[in-house]
Amino acid sequence: MAESALLQVHGLGHSFGAVKVLSNVNLEVPHGGLVGLIGPNGSGKTTLFNLISGYIHPRVGEVRFEGRSMAGVPVEGRSRGGLVRTFQTPRVFESMTVLENIMAGCAKAGGAGMLAEMFALPGARRARREMQEAAGEVCARFKLWALRNEPTRTLPAGQRRVLEIARAVVGRPRLLMLDEPSSGLNDADVRALEHWIGQLRDDGIAVLLVSHDMDLMGVVDTVHLLYNGELLVSGDMSTLQADPRVRDVYLGA
Ligand SMILES: Nc1ncnc2c1ncn2[C@@H]1O[C@H](COP(=O)(O)OP(=O)(O)OP(=O)(O)O)[C@@H](O)[C@H]1O
Ligand SMILES: [Mg+2]
């Protein structure tokens, strides 16, 4: 039997009150694979991310990660296990520096509160030094080193997105879910983002990418079109672009 995919979503459905938002969603992300999710506004992409990452719990269906059911596993447990997501609106600690934000990614279970706690414990100095080293290495790799001591609120949009990815990467995810990382970015920033997503692939990190930017979607192997809460078409990018249903409900819109 073939090895199971890193992420498996089976028959997932969700409603908010009486409003059905997702129904019978099935998708997989292979180990180290790049998978895309497109769909019109309100089609349920972020809700699917929230279900996979554990912010909300499915009414029906199942999320499995590394062969294990995620039912009952909280957000922090999933994140510690390597299932990490970013948000449509960047969530960074504005008053912290770039390097401190990346260090916060080392303590991914609890963010700033966890950091403070760790520093109060015996052996904290060594833990802090190790975190600093790991964060410094990732900071340099993502070309943020020159900005490491800048307060995060001064960063332009493109570098803010890169910082979010760097902060996730320092925690060694197996799967990184990116919710519209290209929104609000100019063409050069989107090209840079494409480069960094390629680097994730080289690092063996699987990616589930939501984006409205069709050029950026060129980086993924498989794309799923979500429409009214259902996966309507799946395939590689050229298959999707040639499919009349995709043109009707999405590209032509
Ligand atoms: N917490 C909530 N309570 C009630 N309805 C919600 C909630 N979150 C999302 N919805 C609704 O669920 C539907 C899907 O929303 P969702 O944010 O998942 O779409 P999306 O595909 O991410 O859209 P966008 O492209 O605009 O980001 C929408 O109709 C939205 O209004
Ligand atoms: Mg969304």
Give the key terms:
single chain; 39% helix; six-stranded mixed β-sheet; alpha/beta; 253 residues; four-stranded antiparallel β-sheet; 10 helices; binds adenosine-5'-triphosphate; binds magnesium ion; globular
Structure characterization notes:
With 253 residues, this protein is of the alpha/beta class. The protein folds into two domains: 1-71 and 82-91 and 170-253, Rossmann fold, CATH 3.40.50; 99-154, no CATH class. The chain is 39% helix and 23% strand. The chain contains ten helices and ten strands. It has a six-stranded mixed beta sheet with strand order 6-7-8-3-9-10, sandwiched between helices. The chain has a four-stranded antiparallel beta sheet with strand order 2-1-4-5, covered by helices on one side. Helix 7 (187-202) links the parallel strand 7 (175-179) and strand 8. Helix 3 packs across helix 5, helix 3 (98-106) packs parallel to helix 6 and helix 6 packs parallel to helix 7 (187-202). The protein is globular and about 55 Å long. The model has no long low-confidence stretch (mean pLDDT 91). The structure holds adenosine-5'-triphosphate and magnesium ion. Residues 16, 21, 39, 41-47, 88 line the site of adenosine-5'-triphosphate.
